Amino acid sequence: GLEWAYSVQSFIIACSDETTLLTTGTKVTFRLPYAFTLTAVRASLTTAATGGDLLTVDINEDGSTILSTKITIDASETTSVSAATPDNAQITIDIDQVGNTAAGKGLKVALIGYKT
After folding, report:
1. 89 burial class (0-12, 13-18, 19+ CB within 10 angstroms)?
2. Within a 10 A sphere around the Cβ of 107, how many other Cβ atoms?
């Protein structure tokens, strides 16, 4: 795609510590240092969640989701990939749902794209 004509960059944001079970709610709030076109997002866990509920992560710009489909990580898995729309304002990363047997630990979210 056109984004490869630009220098691709990634921001990886730690959304929890490595050992505490995850809970729902806003985990981190930050501002990107410059206008940034988001082309992909990824999420990973250090310890997988278990149970029937998917770990579900949302990324918001000024309080509204930027994802057409929220990021989910299947039970007993530690990674997921999803697409997103462009963004350059205040960002929050929220956990909307956790595993119902074990919540998972060590969430990180990568924002991938290019400076615009």
Report:
1. middle
2. 27
List C-alpha distances in Å: 116 to 37, 58, 98.
6, 23, 34
- Mind listing the pLDDT tens digit for each residue in 60-113? 888 888 888 888 888 888 876 432 333 434 567 888 888 777 778 888 887 777
Q: Is the pLDDT of residue 55 over 60?
A: yes
* H or E segment and range at residue 10: strand 8-14
Locus of tokens 């809970």: 23
Cβ atoms of 50 and 78 within 8 Å: the answer is no
Measured in degrees and rounded to the nearest 5, phi and psi for residue 2 equal -60, -30
Q: How far apart are CA 37 and CA 27, in angstroms?
A: 22
The pTM assigned to this predicted structure is 0.70
Report the DSSP beta bridge partners of residue 115: 36
User: Scanning the structure block, which residue is given the tokens 């490595």?
Assistant: 18
Query: Which residues on adjacent β-strands are paired with residue 108?
Result: 14, 44
Pairing of strands 108-115, 36-44: antiparallel
